Structures are given as structure tokens and as C-alpha cells.
Amino acid sequence: MSRDVGRGFKAVLCGSPRTTSGVGIIVSERFRDSIVSVERFDDRLMKIVVAAKEQLYYFFSAYAPQTGCSEQSNDQFWSLLDERTADIPSKDVIIVAGDRNGHVGATKDGYSCQLWFRVQVT
């Protein structure tokens, strides 16, 4: 689903209003006509591809499972993110943004550490 949100901006959304998760990406007027594709993987992960300056930009919006979710749910999310970003040619640009449900503080009861990054060498 996508909709205009005013002043030329477009919201590209994934999820249902009745769920506890969902992601979206707001695209400016400058780039809204440059969207090549939109792919919604599930309520926690989506991707849009924008063509600009002879290069493709892959924007991912991600919402990681929070504390209390099963280890299986966490593993599925991180595996899906890893699989979908691994498919992208190294010459293109990847931006992953969202809520990764990290935790900062003296204790980490109930929290596990997730580290994800991709290094591109050109």
C-alpha cells in the first residue's frame, strides 16, 4: 500500500493497521518517480529500489522482533534480512533503517545482541 502524505511526499507501507508490527518508507517528491520496485517480505521487512544518478539504491525498512519474542522469530527476521541484502550487487548502494530493538543499559536481562553490517569494497 502507498499513499500521498502531503507536500509531495509518498508513504510506501507494509503491514496491516491491526497488527503489532509494520514498516514503511517515506519518499520525497524528488525521488518518488524514480522508484523502480517495491517488495514487501512480511510485516517486519520491506525494500524499495530507487534509480538515481546511474545507480540503484536499495532502501530497507526493518522492525526487529522485540524482547519476549521467540528465538525462532528473531532468527527468521535476521536470516531474511541477511538473505535479501546478500542478493544485491556490490556496485549498488544498500541502506537499512528501522527499529532493531537494541538495548542500552547496565543490564541486558532478556536481551540478546544482534550485529549486522555489510562492507563494500570497490
Characterise this structure:
InterPro entries: Endo/exonu/phosph_ase_sf (IPR036691), Swc5/CFDP1/2 (IPR027124). This is Craniofacial development protein 2-like. With 122 residues, this protein is α+β, with helices and mostly antiparallel strands. The chain has a domain at 35-99. It has helices at residues 29-32, 71-86; strands spanning 2-6, 9-14, 23-27, 35-42, 45-52, 55-63, 93-99. It has a four-stranded mixed β-sheet with strand order 4-5-6-7, with helices on one face. A hairpin with a 2-residue loop joins strand 4 and strand 5. It is globular, with a radius of gyration of 16 Å. The mean pLDDT is 81.
Number of helices: 2
Please state roughly what percent of the residues sit in beta strands, choosing from under 5%, 5-15%, 15-25%, 25-35%, 35-45% or over 45%.
35-45%
Task: Indicate the multimeric state.
Answer: single chain
Report how far the terminal alpha carbons are from each other. Answer: 35 Å
Order of strands in the sheet with the most strands? 4-5-6-7
Helix content: 10-25%
Main beta sheet: strand number and arrangement? 4 strands, mixed
**Count of individual beta strands:** 7
Structural class: alpha+beta
Radius of gyration: 16 Å
Provide the low-confidence segments as ranges. Answer: none
The rough form would be described as globular
Average pLDDT, all residues = 81
The secondary-structure element order is EEEHEEEHE
InterPro entries: Endo/exonu/phosph_ase_sf (IPR036691), Swc5/CFDP1/2 (IPR027124)
Protein name: Craniofacial development protein 2-like
